[in-house]
Design brief:
Layout: H1 3-10, H2 15-22, H3 26-33, H4 41-51, H5 55-58, E1 68-74, E2 79-81, E3 86-87, E4 95-102, E5 116-122, E6 135-139, E7 149-154, E8 157-165, E9 171-174, E10 184-186, E11 193-203, H6 206-210
Parallel strand pairs: 2-5
Antiparallel strand pairs: 1-4, 3-8, 5-6, 6-11, 7-8, 7-11, 8-9, 9-10
Helix pairs in contact: 2-3
């Protein structure tokens, strides 16, 4: 059995039940399980949600995934800029989906899924760590310490940046791509600054996981 079949049987689902849950035919599920076909990235995410395991596991990783956390994904109309900031004033933080993350991938944090979200990063100022279009998971209830990457709002513009606390009370928002983006000094006394959460995890690209680039 491959991991899709194993996860399906552990859930007590028939091929037809799984097929109905993800919007394909039972014969298509059989082809996935027999490795005669590869699921698209969208179908892979539906399989993950239906079976309660991660995409990595379904694609053959040996890691046991007994515990999975489903994290809300924020609508792409809100993006955390890795460049000059995105305006968020008056924008609703709607969630459009949930993404399965293995608990083991976030081991050591005590938040257990509380107040965590996934947001899309835009721009290339955090290359090579965070690519343009990458999805990042952040937690609002984890302390952001010196040098952490965080989601930061400055005057209603949203950033994903490294954070340094300066002795004079200002903050430095750090870019990794120094050739194109200088660091920014932020003064909380004169600017509306909110650290919205610490970046814990860069979500794998499902297309690459599925091998359907």
């Amino acid at each position: 059995m491959n991991n899709i079949e194993t996860a399906r049987k552990e859930m007590g689902m028939s091929r037809k039940q799984l097929a109905d849950a993800i919007g394909v035919t039972p014969s298509t599920v059989f082809r996935y399980e027999a490795k005669n076909a590869k699921p698209t990235s969208d179908i892979l995410q539906k399989l993950s949600k239906a079976l309660g395991v991660t995409a990595d596991y379904l694609c053959g990783n040996a890691m046991t995934l007994a515990s999975v956390v489903f994290v809300p994904v924020i609508d792409k109309t809100i993006g955390a800029s890795a460049g000059t900031g995105n305006g968020i004033d008056g924008v609703e933080w709607n969630t459009i989906d949930e993404y399965p993350i293995a608990s083991a991938a976030l081991m050591g944090y005590s938040w257990q899924g509380a107040d965590c979200k996934i947001i899309c990063a835009e721009g290339n100022s955090m290359e090579p760590v965070i690519h343009d279009g990458a999805k990042v998971l952040f937690a609002a209830n984890i302390e952001v310490t010196q040098g952490d990457i965080a989601i930061v709002s400055v005057d209603n513009r949203l950033f994903v940046k490294g954070v340094l606390y300066n002795k004079n009370g200002t903050l430095t928002l750090v870019s990794f791509n120094k050739a194109e983006y200088p660091d920014r000094i932020i003064d909380p006394e004169n600017q509306d600054v909110r650290i919205l959460g610490k970046v814990l995890y860069i979500v794998p690209d499902l297309q690459k996981v599925a091998g359907v680039i």
